[in-house]
Structures are given as C-alpha cells and as structure tokens.
Write a structure and sequence with these properties.
Number of strands of chain A: 0
Number of helices of chain A: 6
Chains: A mainly alpha (228), B mainly alpha (216), C mainly alpha (62)
Radius of gyration of chain A: 20 Å
Number of domains of chain B: 1
Distance between the termini of chain A: 31 Å
Oligomer: heterotrimer
Strand content of chain B: under 5%
Order of helices and strands of chain A: HHHHHH
Strand content of chain A: under 5%
Largest sheet of chain B: none
Largest interface: A-B, 34 and 32 residues
Chain lengths: 228, 216, 62
C-alpha cells in the first residue's frame, strides 16, 4: 500500500503541526497588508481550503479514471471519499469566501468574485453526484456511472472557470479584486505556504480517516453476510 | 468505420421514425417552449428601459430553450426503457457509442424542430433574433444533445430517473448559458468560439464514456 | 476587536467548527462500528457452537 493509503497518524500529526504553526504565523508574525489591512489575513485560510478542494476533486477524478481503466473496486471507494472531502472543503470555501465578501464589500455574496462563482457551480455539480449515487443500487454499474460523472466534474472545473472569466469581460471589463495580490512579500508567501501545507495535510488526513471508516464498514458487512 | 456509421444511421432513423409515428415528444416541447416564453412576459417587470428589456429577454430565450431541452432529454431513452430494448441494443455486436451518437443526433433534430418555432415566437413576442443568436443556439444544441444523451442514459440506472436528470444537467449547462447569452448580447466571436470548444470537449468525453454507463 | 478582526476570526472558527463536527460524527460512527464488531463476534461464537451439532440429512435430487 502506498504511503498515502496506509493507515496511521503521520499525516494527521503533520497537519496538526503545520496548521497550528500556519495560523500562529498568520495571526502574530506576518505583517498586515498595506492595502487591505487585517482582513487580508483571511486569505491564509480561504485560499488553501479552495486549493485543497480542487485537489480533492482532481484526486477523485484520478481514482475514477483508474476505476474505468483497471476495473478494481477499491478505486470506487477512494474516489467517493475524495469527492466527499472535496465537497466539505468546497462548502468551507464558500463560507469563508462569503465572510471575506462581507468584510470587503459588506455583502454576503457577490457574483464578481470568480472563484466563488465557480465553487458554487461545482457545489451544485458534486451535490448531484451524491444524489446520483444514492439513487442507484450498489454494484459495478453504480461505480462506473459515479466514475464517469466525477470525470465530467474534473473537466467542468477549467471549463466553468473559462466561462466565468468570459462573463467577467461581458459585464465588468475591470475585475474588482483578484483573490491573490499581485505580489506577495516573502513573509506572506512563507505563511501562505505553511498554511497551505497544513490544510492539504488536513484534507488528506480526513480522507484517510474516512476511507478507513468506509473500508471497515464494507468488511463488517461482508463478515456479517458470511456469518449469517 | 462504415459499419459504425451505418449503425448510427439505422438507430437515428429508428428514433426519428418512432417520434414521427407517436408524436409524443416534439409537440410537447413546442408547446412547452411557447408557454415558457409567454410566462416570461408576466415574470418580467413592465417598465424597463428599452435596452434592458432586450437584454433580459435574450437571457429568457436561453432559459426557455434549456428547460425545453431538458423536457425532451427526459424522454430520450423512454422508448428503450419502456420496451426493454436497451439490453438488446447493448448486447448487439455494435460499438455501443453508436447508441449515444444516434441518440444525440435525434435529440439535435428535436431541438431544431423546437427552435424553428421558438425563435420566431421569440422574435414576435420580444425582440429580433440576429445571426449570432441563431449560431449560438445551433452550437448549443450540439453540446446539450451530447451531454444530455449521456446523462439521460446514466439516469436510466437511477431509481429517481426524470428527477435526477435536471440536477445532473444544469451545472454542466452553465457554461452553455454563459456563452449563449454572451453571444446573443455582446461579443459573438469569443463566446461562439467558447461554445465550439465546449461542444468539442464534452462530445468527445461523452462519446468515450457512454460505454461505461450502460453495460451491466 | 475591530470588525475586520471579528470576521477573520469567525472565518477561522468556522473551519475549526467543521473539523470538530467531523470528529463528532466520526465518534458516533466508531461506536456503531464497535457495536457491530461485538454482534459479529457473538454470531461467530454461536456459529462455532452450532458446528458441533450433527449435519442435517440432505435430500437427493434428480
């Protein structure tokens, strides 16, 4: 079993250390942004969460591809878990993004922030993934259909990004704000990287935990059938 | 290759003949799109400035087309499902993606028939339909049919069938709407190009993926 | 605390809340899994006991 699939606390420990360090750095060490002030600090958690969500969806799509390619059942569970964690982080992205919009523009939602709009589309898409999964009887067909849909999701990410970007040129020739400042100073970049590493490690740790739980579920069910 | 195209032709002809004889889907789509266009008039406030009203109306056209397409797509595999024919088709010694291609072609045909009524109705009720809008609608038909046929086949396996198809389809349709409305209102070149890109990408992956969603 | 500070802290707290909620849900799941393991262990023990009994007569078919 490759290191990321092996159960064990190493990843969770790493997440713990990195995230604590990152948050401490963000709040106490890194200087405030000249333009945006204290509210800029939300980026140290918002952007890593968004990137981790993308990573989860990509990971899920990769596992789906492996399922369709190799046909090994384990990929279905891994893909499903990855997408589940991705949706959790996606919701978190929307919530933290909404809070950031409240700070910056005094509204709880804005259609101008491209990243948020794309996440909204993806949230709808992957919620449908779960509805689809729950409405099909378990079996190889459900695995394949879920895998195909997850792959469509991965394709949808860049396509909807492009679409929203084009939309931006339609309504507002000058985008109001970009999520990343043009240049980050060294300390900001360092803090960001630590937070990013911490959040990704957290995502991975959650993925491992959930996967282990689902695998246990499955084995217990098989045992029950064998013993009954 | 020839055999493949022959299979596609046979299946498409079957779908079109079935619709010609039963006249179930297309009349319903025609009525639905006109009804939708009428309802939109009541949904939009009266005293908009002339320029705004046109822009809003164009957006409504796209909504009408999209939801009418959903109506038709829900019925796309209905005949196969009711007659239990899908297993036979799948077991036939033909490339199964031919089923997808033929279904997409017949859906495009239905959409074209529907738009032949919808666009003149729209021009009558709201505002003129210009070249870019028509081009955008045609390109969008391809994308809607390709993705919709695949999703319709996926929905076959689901217990909630017609209920799940719009949920699966609408997020994927967002880029189509963005590009369609963009081409109708603003700079056609960029948005039509994007629609073409969308069609190409999603047609290819729908074509490749169909095999995996129908075989048990 | 200024308004900005309050909102930023709220954002970080929301993240923490999600993770903690996850932990809570997993705690429930773990207890359910433990219960199932206990049940299955009982079933296994009962089965071992039953296998000591003689096998039933098998009817001949065909």
């Amino acid at each position: 079993m490759s290191w990321w699939n092996r159960p064990g606390p190493s990843l969770a420990v790493g997440a713990f250390v990195l995230l604590l360090a990152g948050i401490a750095l963000a709040f106490w060490w890194v200087p405030e942004d000249v333009d945006q002030g204290f509210s800029q600090k939300i980026f140290y958690i918002h952007v890593p969460i968004a990137l981790t969500a993308y990573a989860c969806f990509g990971w899920g799509a990769w596992k789906s591809f492996r399922l369709l390619w190799k046909g090994q059942e384990k990929y279905d569970l891994e893909s499903y878990t990855a997408i589940h964690i991705g949706v959790i982080f996606g919701v978190l992205t929307l919530v933290t993004g909404s809070i950031w919009a409240r700070i910056s523009w005094n509204v709880w939602w804005t259609w101008e922030e491209r990243q948020l709009v794309v996440f909204l589309i993806l949230f709808l898409f992957y919620s449908a993934y779960f509805m689809l999964r729950y409405s099909i009887d378990p079996g190889p067909l459900r695995q394949r259909i879920s895998a195909v849909y997850a792959l469509f999701g991965a394709v949808l990410i860049p396509v909807s990004f492009l679409a929203v970007r084009l939309l931006g040129t339609l309504l507002h020739p000058n985008p109001l704000l970009t999520t990343r400042g043009p240049q980050m100073s060294g300390s900001m970049l360092g803090t960001f990287l630590v937070c990013f590493a911490g959040v990704i490690a957290l995502g991975f740790a959650l993925y491992q935990t959930e996967l282990a739980g689902k695998r246990l579920d499955r084995r217990l069910r098989e045992l029950r059938k064998a013993l009954a | 290759m020839i055999a493949y195209l022959q299979d596609v032709a046979v299946l498409t002809r079957k779908d079109l003949l079935l619709e010609l004889r039963s006249r179930e889907t297309v009349p319903a789509m025609l009525l639905f799109v006109v009804a939708a266009l009428v309802i939109f008039h009541f949904a939009v406030p009266e005293d908009l400035e002339p320029g705004t009203e046109e822009v809003v109306a164009k957006g409504l056209l796209w909504i009408a087309v999209l939801f009418t397409a959903l109506l038709g797509l829900g019925r796309a595999f209905a005949s196969e499902r009711e007659q239990g024919v899908l297993d036979g088709l799948v077991l036939a010694p033909a490339d199964r993606s031919a089923i997808w291609l033929s279904k997409s072609l017949s859906v495009i045909a239905f959409l074209l028939l529907m738009e032949a009524v919808a666009l003149p109705a729209f021009a009558l009720f709201y505002t003129t339909v210009d070249g870019p809008t028509v081009a955008a609608v045609l390109l969008a038909d391809i994308g809607i049919a390709c993705v919709g046929s695949l999703l319709s086949a996926m929905a076959l396996a689901s217990k909630t069938r017609e209920l799940i198809l719009p949920l699966l389809f609408l997020p994927l349709a967002v880029p189509i709407i963005v590009a369609g409305v963009g081409a109708s209102i603003d700079d056609p070149g960029r948005f039509l190009g994007f629609l073409g890109l969308y069609d190409a990408i999603f047609a290819i992956i729908s074509w490749a993926a169909f095999d995996y969603v129908v075989v048990e | 605390m200024s308004t900005a500070e309050k909102y930023v802290t709220a954002a970080y707290l929301v993240v923490l809340a999600f993770v903690l909620l996850y932990v809570v849900l997993y705690a429930f799941k773990m207890s359910r899994l433990e219960r199932e393991v206990a049940e299955l262990a009982e079933l296994a023990a009962a089965r071992d006991g039953r296998q000591a009994e003689p096998e039933r007569d098998r009817s001949v078919v065909g």
